[in-house]
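DM from R.C. (forwarded with permission)

"hey, sorry to bug you on a friday — could you get me a structure for this? deadline for the figure draft is monday and I only need the backbone to look sensible"
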Amino acid sequence: MKRTVRIRFVLLALLLVASIVPNMGFEVNTFGFHWNFYRIVVVLVTLCILILFRGEIRITERRGFLRWMAFFLLWLAYGAVLMVVSTYADKSRGVQELFTILCALLTFFGYSCFDPSEKEIEWLLRIAFLLLTGLTLFGFYEIITANHLSTSMFMDPENLVVEKVDTHTAAGIMYNINDFSALLTMLCPIAIGRFRIRLRRGYLDAGWLTIAGVVLINRINDANICNAALLLGVLVYLLVSTSHDRRKMGRILLGLFGLLLVLVGLYLALGQSAGGLVARWQDQMDYMSVGGGSMHARILIYRDALVSSLRTGFLGLGPAGFPVYCEKFPSDSNFVNPHSFLLEILSQYGIVIFVLFLLLLIWLAKDLYRMYRYGETEVIRNYGMIGVVMIAVYIAVSFAPSSFILNTYPWGLLALLLLMRECGKRQLAKENEKREEDGLWMKENCISFTE
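My reply, with the result:
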């Protein structure tokens, strides 16, 4: 029995690592289809589960995972139909995109076949934190030395944008520096207040220290949206942690409003002479006034994504259809991707898939918040806090990369949150059952005493 549990945990940990670090520097090409580390692991883990645990799979008992897997099946089926009927669908890249969604389905299936204890989930969080720390350190190595992996955009001779990008930035294991910043930012909620290093005279909070390192990398990478997502995550953390005390929540909101006024005052008083963030914000405003700058370009591409959805009657352009749409109707932004995960889903797969995805995210966030509010143990409350903050960061950070669907970590981390939710739900059910048993015992004994 113990060996079976160990095997399942190894398979689950392998899925988590592969979703965070999808490319180990090698790819296998079969008839033009590229197999990276993540895709190989997902297929092999699924086969191992079906072979080793075929008689123990109880998907129908895990309704949370069942909802998500049904959603992915619908997404795949609808995407396949659009691939055939839509004139915008890119057949080659579209197959890659649909295969990514299939891998997401298999990732959720793999997680659903595992019923971990609190200790085992804690180990999964430690693995994710160690990966975050390692990737952050590697990011600083790239910034200092300007040495990059062969998979980064700096090693791509066909990338014309590379000449305009400082080589003393961090692309890490990803292709693009924005993608790497988004990955680090997405992992940060796992580190909030959880990992401490024991020193001679106290503790050093390694979690917040790592988050500070990510903020610095984002600043160097000019990934301001990622730092804004982290700021949103901290705000959600403060609001959730004080949600049971309205007075504290009011103080926090008042303090944040005061901080905002101070920042606006500094901006008005110092202007360009302040340099740094103030000067960059001023540059963006100046560029927008003449129709330039990345902020202005993003507003234009968001508008075009909504227009493309309207052109198809909100039915969707089809898999990888937005770049094809931009070839037929060039965007004034000069972008060919929506630069927003939500708009990417809406424009390419239509309103139904978009709404279902949002509803599933809201449902998951609601359950995780309930875990935080009503969990009896500190561990369960921690799971709820991590989950709520990560979903807030997830939505905000999805506006940073050019494309989000083809990334692997969003699906692996969502599956991890769902696993934590299932563990919390099981714990809450045990606590409610215990209360009912205690209440029944008290009732029976009260009756016997009166008799």
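R.C.: lifesaver. Strands lie at 28-30, 33-35, 196-199, 202-205.
me: no worries. The CA atoms of residues 112 and 214 lie 31 Å apart.
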